[in-house]
Amino acid sequence: MPVQAIASAPADEPAHVRLTIAHPLAAVAARTCTGHTHDLADLVGGVACGWAWTKALTDDLMFALEYGLPLDIEPDPSYIDEIAVRRAMRGEDLELTECERAEVKRRLADIKRRRNRGCTFVCSRAAAARREAGR
Predict the structure, then answer these.
(1) Packing angle between helix 50-66 and helix 26-33, nearest 10 degrees?
(2) How many whole angstroms from its chain centre is CA 119?
(3) SS3 call for 109
(4) Predicted pLDDT of residue 124
């Protein structure tokens, strides 16, 4: 049976110092906390209450363990989130990486180019035959 050790934060670095708006689960914790009423002083990192942070972190950990995912993931800077790109193309204000912004720009330019392209009409053989018969 595998054993997992959980390392605590150093004494001079409390764990809640890392729970800020920059944390990957900050949006999840904030959504979980929206149903509660708090003073701003009660919000850990100015984002969510302690219960909401705990729920977000625990749910994330349980999901990772259930599906055998690594707990620490190095983000790939060249990764393009297709859903975020589509949402940005619809006009939503999102935080995108440089690659994602370039992809949105490329796709919008492609749409513009297709819309502004001159139309070429192709007629069927039957229409051409009717046209020839009418001359």
Answers:
(1) 130
(2) 37
(3) helix
(4) 72
What's the rounded Cα separation, in Å, for the pair 94 and 21? Answer: 15
* CB neighbour burial string for 24-57, b if at least 16 within 10 angstroms, e if fewer: ebbebbbebbeeeeeeeeebbbebbbeebbebbb
So what's the pLDDT on residue 127? 74
Q: Which two tokens stand for residue 93?
A: 């204000």
Question: Tokens in use for 67?
Answer: 């599906």
pLDDT tens per residue, range 33-89:
887 777 777 788 888 888 999 999 999 999 999 999 888 778 787 888 899 999 999
Q: What is the DSSP letter of 10?
A: P
Q: Tokens 């209450």 — which residue?
A: 49
Answer yes or no: pTM beyond 0.85: no
